[in-house]
Amino acid sequence: MNTLTSVATPESVLQRLDWKVIRRLDGLLQGDYRSLFYGFGVDFADLREYQPQDDVRYIDWNVTARMDTPYIRQYTEDREISAWFLLDMSPSLDFGTMQTQKREVLIDFVAVVARLLTRHGNRVGAMMFGNGIQLTVPARGGRVQVLRLINDMLRQPRLSHAPFTDLKLLLKGALNSIRRRSLIFVVSDFISSPGWENVLSLLSQRHEVLAIRLFDAAEMELPDAGVMVMEDAETGEQMVVDSHDKKFRKHFYDAIQQRESQLKDSFKRAAVDVLSLSTEDDMVRSIVQLAKRRQFRRMG
Hints:
By secondary structure, the chain is of the alpha/beta class. The protein is built from eight helices and ten strands. The model is unreliable at 39-44 (pLDDT under 50).
C-alpha cells in the first residue's frame, strides 16, 4: 500500500486500488461478495428437506441431526444494499510507524468496499467524524459516488490536537439519522472516551454492523529504545519516558492487553463482527478472511 501524498487524486487512488486490490479480490472471492454482507437483507424464510440440486452450504445441521434426514434453510434476500461508512477521522488516525498511517488504511478500505458494493448496484454513504460530525455524504450509487467519497476523505482536515475523541457522538448521529435498515461499517481505531459501547449495541439491533478496527503494531508493544517523548495524538500532551525500563514496558503492555480485552468484550456484547486491520496488513488477505469467516457462520 503506497503512502498517500498531497498530490493524490480520487481518480489515482481508485485506479491504484482497482489494479492492486480489487482485481485480486475478484479472483479470490470469484464474485461472491455477498458472503461479506450476508447478514444484511437476508431473512430466514423456511426449512425443507434437502434435494439433490440444493446447495449443501445451506444445510441446517442442527435440524438435520434431530430429524435424521438433511434439511436446508431457505432465505429471501433484498438484492439492493444501502451501506454507510461511519468514519473516525480524529488525530489518532494520523499515527503510523512504517510507511502507512491508519488514516490511509481507512481511505483504502472504504474505497475498496464502496467500489465492490456500487459495482453491483448498491448505494453507499458516509458520516465523517473528527471533532464532532463534520460531513455527511448521502447514500448514492455508481463510480462517481466512490470518487466523491475518496475526495471527501482526502479533504478532511488533519487536526493537530482536539478534544479526546467521543465515538458516542458519531454512533448516535447514525442511530438518529439512518432510518432504513442498512449495512454499516464503523471504521475507527476505537481510541475514545467510554460510553460508545451501548450505542453500538443499539445500532446493531437496527442494522447489520461491522466494526473495522485500525491499529499500528507500535501501539501494541513499546520498543526498548531508551529515553523517548511520548505524545497523545488526541490531546497533544507529552511525557518523557525511559522505554529501557522493563517495569515500565511491562506496565505499558498490561495496559494494552486490558484495553484489548475490553474492546473484545464490547464488540461481543454488541453482537458485531470485527475486522482488525493493521497498517502492515495485506488488505486483500484480510477482506478474504472476513468473507470466509462470515460465510462459515452462515453455513453453521
